[in-house]
Design a protein that fits this description.
One of its GO terms (molecular function) is DNA binding. With 73 residues, the chain is of the alpha+beta class. Helices cover 41% and strands 30% of the residues. The protein contains 3 helices and 4 strands, in the order ββαββαα. A two-stranded antiparallel sheet has the order 1-2. Strand 3 and strand 4 form a beta hairpin.
Length: 73
């Protein structure tokens, strides 16, 4: 599906087609997540539980930064 990139104030925004917004069950003003994947980005609706899990994961990655760096070798 095609989406339009546009300037919104000093930012850049993407206008989602109505069918996409309906499928995601989102409306104007809702928060969504952009997640980078090997295939590009995915857009998902805001989920408080997911947000909490991501915050915990970021804390863990920060706390164990050196360990994770060594494991990645």
């Amino acid at each position: 599906m095609r989406a339009t990139v546009t300037k919104i104030g000093n930012s850049t925004g993407v206008i989602l087609p109505k069918a996409v917004a309906e499928r995601l069950k989102i409306k104007q003003g809702d928060v969504v997540y952009l997640t980078e994947t090997p295939a590009g980005y995915t857009v998902t609706p805001y989920d408080p539980e997911f947000a909490e899990q991501m915050q915990a994961a970021r804390r863990g990655m920060s706390d164990y930064k050196n360990t994770l760096h060594e494991l990645a070798k």
